[in-house]
Amino acid sequence: FGDGVFRTFLVSNGCPLNWDMQYEKLKVDADILKIKVPSKRNLLHDIKKLFSDDKTYICKVIITRGTSNQGYQYNKNIKSTRILLKINYKKINPKFYLSGVKLKVCDTRVTQHDFYGGVKHLNRMDNILAKAELNTSYFDGVMLDINGYVNECVSSNIFARYGKVILTPKQNNAGVSGVCKQIIIKNIKLLGFEFKHQNIKLAKLKKADEIIITNSIFGALFVNQIEEKKWKNNLFTSLIRDFIIKPEVR
């Protein structure tokens, strides 16, 4: 039923990157859905047990509400199920860091929900359908909400730089607000920029000096094209990248 939450991040030398923030976001999302999450200590123990060598991997932590019988009803004392996936990490093509990536504007829109909008739950049908729209010429796809505002990308968050101001969509009870956004907010002043949440139409997005996409696997990439609009600037992208993913695991 999609009744669970998940996080995806890198593990290097047995250590999960940005673990404090990843666990906190996992717990916040699970609390909204009233799902019990294992302790931070127990999950970290599982991670270190599964990722026991000195290589870099992708880790996906999945927490479901638990095992129940047929139907939607579940026991109030249900015990959550935790699943850890160990996925081989393949370094991103260096050309994407150097030359940027191209995005498609997807027809599929994000679903808004007042209660669990923004939660990284297991029902990702919006993202699956949007991903199916992409061919190999596109790295990711821009997803709009029902009002035509930019919300996120299929597999990443999106940011726009206008001079010294970094804007990110408000998301309006839809999409996923990830750990990378928290990292940017935390370090924005240190880098000499200002951060704002704002409703952004596609036309305004195209007027930006720079477009950045982020996630916990590739860090930050600058966008070189959306539809007819092209960019070459990657000022902020190059500055924030190493705050998201440490150089030794890129």
SSE layout:
Layout: E1 4-12, E2 15-16, H1 19-32, H2 40-50, E3 56-64, E4 81-88, H3 94-99, E5 101-105, H4 125-131, E6 140-144, E7 150-153, E8 157-162, E9 165-169, H5 179-187, E10 194-198, H6 202-205, E11 210-215, E12 219-226, E13 229-230, H7 235-244
Parallel strand pairs: 5-6, 5-12, 9-10
Antiparallel strand pairs: 1-2, 1-3, 3-4, 6-7, 8-9, 8-11, 11-12, 12-13
How would you portray this structure in words?
With 250 residues, the protein is α+β, with helices and mostly antiparallel strands. It has helices at 19-32, 40-50, 94-99, 125-131, 179-187, 202-205, 235-244; strands at residues 4-12, 15-16, 56-64, 81-88, 101-105, 140-144, 150-153, 157-162, 165-169, 194-198, 210-215, 219-226, 229-230. The radius of gyration is 18 Å and the shape is globular.
